[in-house]
Amino acid sequence: MRSRLPFSPSLAALLALVLGVLISALLFTAVRRLEHDKVDIDFQQQAKVRVAAIQNGIDNSINVLKDVNQLFVAFGTVSREQFQSFAEPLLASNPYIQALNFHRYISAQERPQYEAAMRTRFPGFTIGDISNGAPVPAPHRAQYRVVDYIEPMEGNKAALGIDADSYPFQDAAMQKSVDTGEPSATGLLRLTQERGTQKGFIVLMPVYRPGMPLTDVAARRLAIIGDTAAVFRGGDMIAKSLSADSFMLVSDAKLALNISVYASDDTLGDALIFHQGAPLQLIESSVGLPKWLFYNQPEPYQHLFNVAGQPWHMVVSTPPAWFMNEGSTALWAFIAGLLFSIGGAAYLQTVVDRSRRIQLLVDERTVQLRSVNEDLSADIAARKRTEQELQLRERAIEASANSIIITSAVAPHYLIEYVNPAFERITGYSAEEAIGMDLCFLWNDDADQPGIEEIRATANEEREGHAVLRNYRKDGTLFWSDWYIAPVKDDKGVVSHFIVVQYDITATKRYESELEFQTNRDALTGLANRSLLRDRLSQAVSYAYRYGHPIWVLFVDLDRFKFVNDTLGHQAGDILLTAVSSRLQAAVRDTDTVARMGGDEFVLILPERTDSGLSTHIVQRIMEAIAQPLTIEGHEFFVSCSIGVAVYPADGDTPEELIKHADIAMYRAKEIGRNNFQFYTPAMNERALERLHIEGDLRNALEREEFTLHYQPQVDLRTGEIVGVEALIRWQHPELGMVPPVRFIGLAEENGLIVPIGAWVIRAACLQNKEWQMAGLGHLRMAVNLSARQFAQEDLVESIASSLRAADLAPEYLEIELTESLVMADVDRAIGILRELKALGVQLSIDDFGTGYSSLSYLKRFPIDVLKIDRSFVNDITIDPDDAAIVASIVSLAHSLRLQVIAEGVETEAQLNYLREHDCDQIQGYFFSRPVTAAALTAMLEEGKRLPIEILTL
Ligand SMILES: Nc1nc2c(ncn2[C@@H]2O[C@@H]3COP(=O)(O)O[C@H]4[C@@H](O)[C@H](n5cnc6c(=O)[nH]c(N)nc65)O[C@@H]4COP(=O)(O)O[C@H]3[C@H]2O)c(=O)[nH]1
User: Fold this and answer.
1) Which end of the chain is more exposed for a tag (fewer CB within 10 A), N or C?
2) What is the pLDDT of residues 831-874, one digit of tens each?
3) Is 461 within a domain?
4) Residue 832 is part of a domain; what is its CATH number?
5) What is the ipTM of this complex?
6) Are the beta carbons of 763 and 793 closer than 8 angstroms?
7) Is residue 796 part of a domain?
């Protein structure tokens, strides 16, 4: 809605109004000035007319006087009648003259005669004076200037016979006139004939005796006989002068003039001779405005003029008149200007209002336009955005790595209308080939997929759906894809199309199966891992429980696997494990489970068979399969295994329990000698528990000083004497009694306690050896076992050196025994440590030598002194020709390397003999002595125990 403007005067209108008022005022002023100037000019003109009239009257009068005087000059003697007849017409034409006189000088002598003569005409005549304005007989004086003739007589008769000199001013005027010969006026005086209040004056002109010279003042004074005079009643004379001019009368009608005439050069009241009109009234200007603005009053006209030698002053003024009296032109001009200004301002206001309204309208329209423009811009931007979004979506669809299909929503075929480049890339079908096809073409003949039903249902029900499908490329190869199908609605909400996004999940499927494999399978052998084993065993237990069948769980651990692994490296170990796995699988049925627990441990689940029951033959067969010779990197190995068997339900009814019990049984099998099997018995469990118990106590054993050392002598086969001892640790357990090292060394290795325990052994062995030396029992070589953990110890050399220092034992009496597998694990590092030890001065020996044949080649690199042939070889040298050959070749090789050879575990004389025959240097074993306490060995040394000489000489 258009807003209505509130009235607010515009600046332009206000300015116009103010300007208009100012111009009107100026106009008024100008007109007033003109009016006033006109009045002034009129006034001046009229004033001048009056001055001229008065001047004219006076001039005329003086001329009349001069004419009368000329009469006397011309005739010399003028009779009264002549005078009368001459004056009469003159007076008629100059009414402003009161009288024309002839004054005659009469001496005192002539007076009586004169008076007498005059009385003839004028009875009672006497020369008189004016006293207090009234005639009185003149006193005697030498000369009289008597008013002799006077015309007209009427009205003036009172002055006849008066001595003119008795009038004031007469003397001076007369004297001046006599001296100059010119008319001379008196000052104002009261005329004798005056009956009113008017003042009069007299103009005198001398009459000289005819014929007398008048060349200078003296001559003139001598020639004087009288004078002619014109008598004026001042007011009448001026009034008549003024009224004689007709023009003046016309002008009078316009202006009221105040006329004052002064017989003086100033304007004193005494000199006022004539006044007409109101007294002079000058108005003051008000509020700083000039008075002429509102009043017509020209400045009074002043005129100074000369009347027969007397200065006269005339002032003409006019009373102030309100300007409207003269006319309203200025006012009308002002009003017209004002009206014009108001009109102009109003017009301007209207124009301004209009332009404001227009501006307002323009602003409103601009705002509307802007808003429309913004809407339009927003609309365009939105369209552009939509367009860009559409383009983006199109490009996104085109660029999508996933296959996208758009099909028609028309059943039953839902023909393809669009496929993106990814579809072409993935399927091998071009867009031209795919468009117009039924979606089914991607499934080939593989229509028996649950996902296809879901896709069909999705399309029929026009809803979103998802399915995993097997698809086939143009070349027939399979690929898996995840289908997401969604209906696309048109503007009316009707489903017009379907969009199908296919995620190629072939790789994911592959990963899944790989993951599944990794999760459940052993990476090396492909056998079931622990987790799958547990599942399978659970299933087997459930099944067995349901049908009342037993299950055998076999825990298989390879003997000497560590040796292979450590000597030949992990790769060889892996080959061995893979081979064993295959053999295990081959040894059982497909339905049986073979799992790898890690390392060289395997678990087999053997459910009862339907055709035949479970028997130890199966276990035997497994062991035989494993025991088959195996060639790795050109070396033939004989691998054996130890097997523990747990039976469901007798030995447990959970997978964990069964595996644990099989494991315990396997330990037992190992304990009683490798390469056999044991069935689990509850007693085994107790032993296992005992191991746990031992492990707990082992932590405190060192502190509690429960360890002790036993010493087994080493005997020289040439001399039969004890040349060294091997320190073997024993644990005096407070409850279990003497615990052999096989029961705790392994545990100490596992938990790291072997390091402080080993250090204690070295220290104690050194001290003991020193003690024997000090006791004079010979300088024996003290052999000490070093575990793998100790060997890995950073400060091993320093630790041994400190033990030697502590015992003050020469280093050559200490022998460090290292196992073959220990030094072979990292040959280079081992060589470094061995060299350091060698530098220390201790003896070095390789224990258990022979369990890894291939290590022979390294021997020459090791700075060792002694080789100890493993008991297992010695054990069978008399019955196994292979072992005998091995031992013989070890001795030979060692000697070729300048090493001494000690055979361990010599129990029989036959063994001894064989060794002696094959140049073995020393033996150690039960044949000569079991490991014994320090005291026992001391006694042995003291008594000089040795091999019987006959044995040595046989
Ligand atoms: N059947 C039979 N056995 C014989 C015969 N002669 C000696 N033996 C036994 O063979 C073992 C020799 O020690 P080993 O091979 O180093 O084998 C040792 C060694 O590896 C380890 N061991 C013992 N004491 C220590 C020790 O202080 N430190 C470390 N690291 N290991 C030790 O424990 C293993 C077993 O020690 P022991 O039970 O004392 O068993 C000893 C000894 O009693 C024999 O004629 N017949």
Assistant:
1) N
2) 899 999 999 999 999 887 766 544 566 778 889 999 999 888 89
3) yes
4) 3.20.20.450
5) 0.96
6) no
7) yes
